[in-house]
Each structure stands twice: as C-alpha cells, then as structure tokens.
Amino acid sequence: MTEPVCRVVIVGGGFAGLNAAKVLGNVQGVEVTLLDSRNYHLFQPLLYQVAMAGLNPSDIASPIRSMLARYRNVRVLLDEVVTIDLPRRQVVTRDDPLPYDYLILACGTQHAYFGRDEWEPHAPGLKTLEQATEIRRRVLTAFEEAEKCTDDPERRRQLLTFVVVGGGPTGVELAGAIAEMSRFTLAHDFRSIDPRMSQVILVEGGARILGAFAEPLADNASRSLARLGVQVWTSCLVTSVDANGIEACEKSVPAATVIWAAGVEASPLGRGLGVPLDPQGRVHVERTLNIRGYPEVFVVGDQAHCLDEEGNPYPGLAPVALQQGRSAARNILRDLAGRPRREFSYLDKGMMAAIGRSKAVGQFRKMRFTGFIAWLAWLLVHIYYLTGFANRLMVVLQWGWSYLTFKRGARLITQPDWRLYKRGRSGDGR
Amino acid sequence: MTEPVCRVVIVGGGFAGLNAAKVLGNVQGVEVTLLDSRNYHLFQPLLYQVAMAGLNPSDIASPIRSMLARYRNVRVLLDEVVTIDLPRRQVVTRDDPLPYDYLILACGTQHAYFGRDEWEPHAPGLKTLEQATEIRRRVLTAFEEAEKCTDDPERRRQLLTFVVVGGGPTGVELAGAIAEMSRFTLAHDFRSIDPRMSQVILVEGGARILGAFAEPLADNASRSLARLGVQVWTSCLVTSVDANGIEACEKSVPAATVIWAAGVEASPLGRGLGVPLDPQGRVHVERTLNIRGYPEVFVVGDQAHCLDEEGNPYPGLAPVALQQGRSAARNILRDLAGRPRREFSYLDKGMMAAIGRSKAVGQFRKMRFTGFIAWLAWLLVHIYYLTGFANRLMVVLQWGWSYLTFKRGARLITQPDWRLYKRGRSGDGR
C-alpha cells in the first residue's frame, strides 16, 4: 500500500523554483506542480548580453518543460497566478485553483521606479527577454537614426548619448557593453557618423558604483569603464526621465536611450498574502525559509527576506536563490521523513561583474580578482552555470566568434508587436 | 579629373537588392544608397525553421550594414519609402527625398488573402521574423493549453489541430516540421497529453501539392508527409477562417492554429508607379529588367514580372532574385561604359523542399532527387547560401544538435509586445 500523495506547488521557474523542483522531482509519494507565466527558464545574469546583441534569446533561456522532463513527478503548467489563498491552501490561477500540501513561492523581483512609474516607457528595465530585445532595438535604432541625421548635430549628439541608471553589476555590465559596441562592433559599419562619437553615461545615486563589492574593486571597475569611454557619475540622483533624456544632479542630459538598472521590488504576489513584508515587498521568512505561522509555505530567492547568522538579509543573487530553493525542498523531505527542519545557511559563491569584453571584477570570500583574469573566471563560471549543454556550446562559439571578429551575432532590430499582423515585407523598402 | 558621380538608389535589402549593391559597391564614380525598412537581410528559405523553433532569428538574418561594410561606395539607410516620383527621379521617404540617376526596386512580395484580409489575424503568413516568432508562439502555446485542458476533449482536439493553408514549398515544409515537432521534440515533455494526438492538415486548392515541381516529386512528398502523419487535402478551397478554425471543402475544421502559406502579391509600392502591373501586382519589365519607357528604373526579384525566352514569367525564387539583382546592376555598368545592355537569362539552380528532418524533394534541370539524399543536398545548399560564416557555423551546430537529440534550440514563447513595458517578472508565476 502507498502512503497518501503529498502535493507540492512551486510558483516560479527561476533558479530557486527550478532547483526546488529538481530536489523533489523523483521522490516517491511527492507530486510537484510548477507554475510559471513563461514557458522558459531565463539565465538572468547574461540578459545584458542579449540586450547588447551579443547573444540570442534562446542562448540564455530554455523551456522549463524540457529541463524537468526527466523528473517524472513534476508537472509544468504555463499559467498566471491570481492570488494565494493561505487559509484554504490553494493557489488561485486563471484556470482551476490548485490545492497544495506544501507551497514554494519563488516569484523573483521586478524593476522599481521609486514611485515614478511614468519613467518606465522612457527607461525600460532589464529583467525579461522582451525588455532585452527592446533595449537592443532602441540602441541599434539610435545609431541608424544618427546615420541619417546629417544636418542636426544636436539631435545627432542626443541620439548617440546612452544613459544607464544604476551602478550595480547590471548597470556596469550594460554601460561597458554599449561603449564597447559603439567603439568596435559598429565602428566600420557607418558612413556619415563615427560611432566613437557616442557618449555613455553611468549614473549612480550612491557614493560609488558596485556598492556590494569591496571598494578597491569598484575603483578598478571605474577605471576600466573610463578607459572604455564611459562617464561614471556617482552621488548623482535622477530627478526626471522623459522622451528627451534625463535630469540628474542639476544637469539636463539629452539622450535618446535611457536604460533603468536601479532598484528592484519583489513580485506583487507577496502583497496579497497578508503577511509581513520588508520595504522592497519581500516576504519575511524564518531561517527555515517558511513564513512564520505557515510551516507549509516557503518563500525563496529574490522574493524572500531571510536573515543570515549575523542578522543581515541575504542579497538577491542567483546562487542564493538556487541554494534556498534546494534547502526549502529538503525541509519538505525532512518533514515527510519525520526529521527536524534545517535552517538555511549560504555557501558563498562570490560576486562578479564583467566590464566590456576583456575585463571584470570579482570577489570570492577574501579573494579579489580584476582585469583579464577576472574576466576569464567570469566567462567560465557563467558558461558552466548556463543550463543545457547546447546552450553552453552555442554561447562559447558565439563569444569566441565575436571576440575574434568584433562582430555581433544578433544585431537585429525586430519590429514592435503592432507589426506582427502586418503582412510580410522583408527586403522591402516601404 | 573625375567623371560626375552616378547616384544609384536600391530599395530593398533582400537577395536581389543586396546582390545589386555588391556589384556596384566598389565601382569608381558610382554612389549607391540602399534603403530598407529593416536593418537586416533575411534568408527567407529558412524562415519556417524559425517558426518551428529549430533556429534563432539571428541564424537566418544578418545586418545589411555589416554585410555591405566592405563596399565603400554603399550607404545603407534604415527608412520607409513613401512613394517613387518617376518623372522627378526621386525616392520619397519619411525623411528627405533621395534623387537618383538609376533606381533598382527590389521590394519583394507579401502574403495575399484573396481579398479576405479579415482572415489574417487568425492565419498569419510567414514572410517576416515577427510572423515566424508569432507562429512559434501560437504552436507552442497550443500545446501548453492542451496540457492544461484535461476535462474538455473537444477543446483539446481543437488545440492540437494545426492547419497549414497552401501546398507550396513553404506549406509543405511547415506541415512536415509541425508533425515532426509534435511527434519527437515534444513527445516526452508533456504529462497529461500525448503530442502524437496532434493533427496536422495541409490544405491545397490545386489538384496536387508542389505544383511547380514535377508530378512524381509531388507524389513522393505527399507520401513522406503522410508517413509523418500529415493529412494532405488537395483540390480543397478554404471558404472561411476565424478564431475557431477553418471551413474547407464543405467541412468545418476546429483548429486553434492556422498558418497561411497560400498566395502572395507584390509590394504595394508598385501600384504607386503608374506603370503596367500583372494581377499579382508585379511590375512588368523588359528582358533588360527595366520598366518600358524608364530605362533608368529597374525592377528585380519577386516584385518583377519578367518573361523568359519561352515567354513565361520567372518564378519567385531566391536564385532568380539574386541573379536579376546582379544583372540589373551590370546593365547600369554597361551604360556607364557605353556598352549595350544584356537581356536577363536565368541560370537554373533548381528547386527544393524539405520534409521533416530527414527527407526532401528536389529537381535540378532534368534531374530529380527524393528522400534522404535530397535532404542532404537541401541541407548543403541552404547552409552554403546562408550569409556569413558565423551563421553557417551556428546553423550547422544547432541542426546537428537537434538532429541528434530531437531537442529544439529555440523553443521560447516570447510575450506579445504590449508586455514590453510591463515590469520584469521572469521566474514569476503571476
């Protein structure tokens, strides 16, 4: 006779949710349902490479369904969660509600505009593939427009000015990649403009970029950025963003392209729970990763506010999410085996940020790396963690190729969606 | 002293326009401007592979600008042509009008719905990358929906029914690829559905599919399709298309996904010219490829209606477009050298259609190929003609990989554009 089946519902197919599913996926008597509104797992650390036309969307994303195909107890559903009914232990979706014995929430974060949502259309964030391809479209289109704009130097200067708001790893990597692209990749393709005329400005509100990194590394990164021609403005708050550009530290900067890499907030799903949240909307969880008073509900990854041994919240890093997903799943297994739960403790995997195509900064516990060595380490780590061998192979080759040739594999400006149903006009000047 | 510069404007960066530009691009005293509304050249023969998640958009498209970077006399502009002013010899664009001494129109074709444009949203064509990724989204989403649809067998059957309208090479290749994908690629990824339950119907109005091919080849293709589980309905006219499916030969077929591969018409730009057009809107040109009465205006590729030695119009094939582009450009050079123009004569490169991932049919002059040999030939030819070494390399590897593993590299459902500005929610169930 078999014991009654334990129903585990996981919301979110990011690093945390995916790895929770893998721990539970082949366990007898456990039935896992993973919900996501996308059909793919996204390797976010390389998203900026898609935005900068260095990689294809599918190089950094793969279908959750096939990633979990080997795990026979896992059912993957493409669905939108409306709300969570904690008392009834149900996940309410667009379709039928899903009852659960255990729930693992791993919904990640989204960009926050500090209450200035009207800035969003003018300064897209970089959290989804759509945003990445949109940023790619804007950057490449700006160069195309500048090429045509032969009679208006001011407008051309505006078109060739790129502002990145936020000096965290994403902002640093974006700024470096734009500078690189304009200097090398595009340098020979244009006739009437010199892409080196382009201006890249990285705006950071804090006293220095890469606040989470050790100060010497941040300084090194600033120097590397400067060498690529990136202006780094620190202690500089953005006071306005519109179609013409930004205003920051009393200066008004005309810029056709503004990218938002500052500030995140947790998924709005948390607000519906009626449990304590931190200012960023992350759900407070105990060190066993479940919500106080709800032992059957775990919150993991960027969506969770979990304190470490020293009482500091864990940062929103991929390895943290990955380890928390596993840890929550293992606590469920401990319950089923009648063993006590374990508190989460993070095995530090370090932090890295790439700058252009040959430099990086990284820290791993007490160790610090800079320059080409750090970039090599960055490359190896990211390729290693990229899910799926095919992806890894493609990325290695694509990078090898663009490293040698300065070409960008994916430099396509795809049209906005309203043209989807317009008839085909490829190779057509109209 | 230098002779006065001759201004050549080329509209369209497809096979015809691109190759015309290459012939003229390094000639002393010629100044070429190539206009396209896209920044990339699209390798249309493989577009169906993108729609079927076998390839990435950037594998079959590369930026016109970098493809022509070596040709110093060529200026590439991303712009929309409003109209052509033949008397004034100007191309009127969204920006400044472009005067020309010679004009080469190579605007290609678009899908035609035989006056039933209301069908288009329910049955997208396959001419652009956006349409390809939209078709990909629809096909993959249908399977996801079917997976959730456990209680309504009729609805599920509708979700798993795929109709391809039009039995030309594109229709045949699409139908074969859908059948293949549902049988092999997706077979093991779903829990509650068996993708083999899916139904693929190829509807052709004519007496047989592949009308342009020799009859034995068409028969062979039909058999290969049948073996993949594709139903081929010939002499069957579609009388209605809506959100629920289609009506054809008195049958109403509930189908969630309908793809339009029937009938094309030339770019609307031709209508503005006030010169004779054929019923498909193609511009009648003399055998020297210029419009009668306008020796300085050439029309080439799918947009041109040009008669061969026997008085039959040339078919809309990539090699025809490529050769006509070169031929028109060479006639311009002959003018400049004071030599007589030459009439276009087509060097037959044959025709091919792939069926699934291991069969094809092809004919080359008197020779005919079928089965695996034809597929190998198809593979080699298409990889050879793919522009840019990097692309070729990627495609070979991606295909090699999916051939070995049945996996699809690019199986992503990217969201419609209205979500672009929605904040990032990757790895998020909401």
UniProtKB/TrEMBL annotation, chains A, B:
The keyword Oxidoreductase applies. It comes from Geomobilimonas luticola. Its EC number is 1.6.5.9. SUPFAM superfamilies: FAD/NAD(P)-binding domain. InterPro entries: FAD/NAD-bd_sf, FAD/NAD-binding_dom, NDH-2. Keywords: FAD, Flavoprotein, Membrane, NAD, Oxidoreductase, Transmembrane, Transmembrane helix. This is NADH:ubiquinone reductase (non-electrogenic). It catalyses: a quinone + NADH + H(+) = a quinol + NAD(+). Residues 7-325 form the FAD/NAD(P)-binding domain. It is an enzyme of class 1 (oxidoreductase). Pfam families: Pyr_redox_2 (PF07992). Belongs to the NADH dehydrogenase family. The chain crosses the membrane at residues 369-387.
